[in-house]
Amino acid sequence: MTERIGIFGGSFDPPHIGHLIIAEEAIHAFHLKKLDWLLTPHPPHKVNQPLASLQHRIKMLESCLSDNPGFNLSRLDIDRPGPHYAVDTVKILRSQNPSAQVVYIMGGDSLHDLPTWYKPHEFIQVCDLIGVMRRPGDLVDLDNLERIFPGLSVKVSFMDTPLIDISSHIIRQRIQENRPYRYFVPGTVYAYIEQNSLYR
Predict the structure, then answer these.
(1) Is 159:30 a contact under the CB 8 Å cutoff?
(2) What domains can you pick out in the chain, each with its CATH number?
(3) SS3 for 194?
(4) Which residue from 41, 36, 62 is spatially nearest to 51, judged by alpha carbons?
(5) Per-residue pLDDT tens digits for 117-171
(6) In 3D, which of 68, 21, 67, 59 has the Cα closest to residue 39?
């Protein structure tokens, strides 16, 4: 079987247990040799959203990925100037791993929004597989997307993951409201947030 590398992108502000569960499920479901966690410094679709500093997000990710040999914190977007678009990132990863298949992991909400992405046709073309995690109410209409992007349905593979209603946004909100969030994130991330008074 051809070696497979996964890409799991996001701002990870902060990384939480939902991210880790999705990532581990993706490695299992798609038989990945490794999963690159692609930290996007300044997501183009979050221009007006304040983010924790890049260094804080790097430290939090490092703290919760280090004990899993299948996880890799990629510096692909960290070390190159923006704006960072998925299509460019996949192209670079393919050039660095010419014999591997590239599997891009995303949520159903991202798949639904695919028509608004930068160069979506080209993005689909450069991915070998697009692994999609379904969520209740994610509004994915694959038949409609197939009409817009002929050949997309061949590339899409849905994966079953436990439904955990946790998001980085909810965690930041809880911290701002002084509500408990300790078990929404790995222990190392909780300690880092508290130590550095993030999101307050």
Answers:
(1) yes
(2) 4-167 (3.40.50.620)
(3) helix
(4) 41
(5) 999 999 999 999 999 987 766 778 899 999 999 999 999 999 887 777 788 999 9
(6) 59
